[in-house]
Each structure stands twice: as C-alpha cells, then as structure tokens.
Amino acid sequence: MEKTIKEWVNEGAMIVDVRTPSEFSEGSIENAVNIPLNEIESRISEFENKPAVIVFCRSGSRSAMARTILSKHQIPNLYNGINEEFMRMQLL
After folding, report:
1. Annotated catalytic, 57?
2. CB distance 13 to 61 below 8 Å
3. Widest pairwise Cα distance in the chain
4. How many whole angstroms separate alpha carbon 35 and alpha carbon 55?
5. How far apart are CA 78 and CA 92, in angstroms?
6. For residue range 10-58, what is the model confidence (pLDDT) as tens digits?
7. Where along the chain do its domains lie?
8. What are phi and psi of 70, to 5 degrees?
9. What is the pTM of this model?
10. C-alpha span between 80 and 62 (Å, rounded)
C-alpha cells in the first residue's frame, strides 16, 4: 500500500513549493522550501537522499513539470502535491 502525503511528511519528506518567490512570500505550507520551477534542474543536489519529495504550486501544472524534471534525474519517491489547497487538506 502506498504511503499518504501526510505519512511521507511525518517521515521527513522534503516539501517544495515551486512557485515564484513573490508567490511563496504571500503564504505557503508549513515547512515548505521555495525552489522555483526554473531553478529545479540547477538545484538537483538539494533533492538527493531525501525519503520523498513532494512538489506543489498553485494549480498543479508547474509541480507536474518539476516532478518530470526530478524524475529524469532519478530522484525517488516523487509526489505531485498538486496545489496549496490540496496540500493543506492532505496534511490535516
């Protein structure tokens, strides 16, 4: 059975908001780090050796692209948290 987002977070998953810094500054998920989509590929080393990586954005489009990029770099246990509202519901 696959783990839930909440279970991965409890086990130390990296939560990544891939929106722009200005969007991130308007509010995000607790413990999320901001790595904008256009920086994902140049910051691959930050994703290595994490139990899981959960990416999210406003609509789910940019996080889907981020997941594709990370997957190409063999980052395991990738999850598209879809959007901020979905992530908040999953973490309750």
Report:
1. yes
2. no
3. 37
4. 9
5. 20
6. 999 999 999 999 999 999 998 999 999 999 999 999 999 999 999 999 9
7. 5-91
8. -65, -40
9. 0.90
10. 10
Amino acid symbol at 18: V
In the block, residue with structure tokens 């409890």 = 10
Structure tokens at 80: 């598209």
- Six token digits for residue 75: 């980052």
Q: Of 5, 13, 57, 70, which one is the catalytic site residue?
A: 57
* Tens of pLDDT, residues 48-79: 999 999 999 999 999 999 999 999 999 999 99
CA dist list (Å): 11 to 39, 43, 48, 81, 89: 25, 22, 15, 16, 18
Residues shown for the chain: 92
Location of structure tokens 């790595």:
35
The CB density around residue 88, as the number of other CB atoms within 10 Å, is 13
Mean local confidence (pLDDT), 70-92? 87
What is the CATH number that goes with domain 5-91? 3.40.250.10
Burial class (CB in 10 A: 0-12, 13-18, 19+), 74: exposed
